[in-house]
Amino acid sequence: MFPIGFAIDVVKEYTKPKECVLDPFAGRATSLFAAASEDRFGLGIEINPVGWVYGKAKLQTADRKDVEERIRWLGYKANEYSTYLKNLPPFFNSCFCTEALKFLLAARELLDWKRKKTDWTTMALLMIDLHGKRDCALSNQMRQTKAMSPQYAINWWEEHNLRPPELDPVEFMLKKVNWRYAKGRLNSGSGHIYLGDSRFILNQWKYRPPKVKASLLFTSPPYYGVTNYFYDQWLRLWLLGGPEKPYGLGAPYKGKFENKKQYIHMLYSVFTNSNAFLTRDAVVFVRTDSRLFTKEATINALEFAFPNKKIRSERYSLPDFTQTSLFDPGSESKGEIDFVMW
Q1: What is the 3-state secondary structure (H, E, C) of 260-328?
Q2: Alpha carbon separation from 36 to 10, 187, 193 (Å, rounded)
Q3: What span, in angstroms and rounded, lies between the C-alpha atoms of 45 and 23?
Q4: Which residues lie below 8 Å from residue 154, measured CB to CB, with a gap of 6+?
Q5: 3-state DSSP call for residue 22?
Q6: What is the pLDDT of residues 254-282, one digit of tens each?
Q7: What's the pTM?
Q8: Are 42 and 192 within 8 A, CB to CB?
């Protein structure tokens, strides 16, 4: 997870205006957003739809007026979803008030977030405040970083006698839109993010390559055994049309990366295939977990993929908590480490 200031510093140090930045593990597209905001072009791939929607909305943001109209329209359509409430698992009626839940069901059904700019922007704004602190989000009290298991959440709410906050979802979201748009937005066309598995998309690019090659590969791969993004984001994935419970999705590259051979293969495959879409003198900048296995697997994959480049490690100023400490508080990791190749 890149702090935006850090990402901008890296982009400015290793690229020139109009050059391209490639991120095959784009996450929420902070690297691509940093590139676009500094007059570069960001090109990325993300396997998790939640991250993809956030990235798409950052790079190609709809007009404020269009988003506000879409929110009001969803509020109008929400009453058509009253009969759906009784068919939902108990979690949802404990997490959201009736009006908010009908609004979310309408958004889940009607927003064409894969194809329409207004809809992916509206969906991104909804997901940001889908759950979090009471009175600051649509949900009952729940940490914003990840959705807990349904029964755990229900038990906690009952223990603390917490009912879902009563609110008007249209009024709530319009206030959020007003705040989000206060400082403007990026112009569209300054980047692109693909939804899918980097291993497969990079292979497809061999037959239909991007128009420009990247002068900076700037990324942070998933960390071995730290978190399962699909499980932790199950509630936001539900809003995107996913299952009503945090089922394991089964795919080895959508889980917690607990198989060392699969993890190593993933790194080798993505880095090696990325090489074809870089300029000859491109810089490779990778942030990873400093635990021994993840660190060594990353170094080996980088040296294999880019045999003619030198490598050095760097430590930048890190936030008070890192991805590893957030999702694996028992870890002895000292945080993240950065590798630079040139």
Answers
A1: HHHHHHHHHHHHHHHHHHEEEEEEEEEEEECCHHHHHHHHHHHHHHCCCCCEEEECCCCCCCCHHHHHC
A2: 13, 9, 12
A3: 7
A4: 90, 91, 94
A5: strand
A6: 555 678 999 999 999 999 999 999 999 99
A7: 0.91
A8: yes
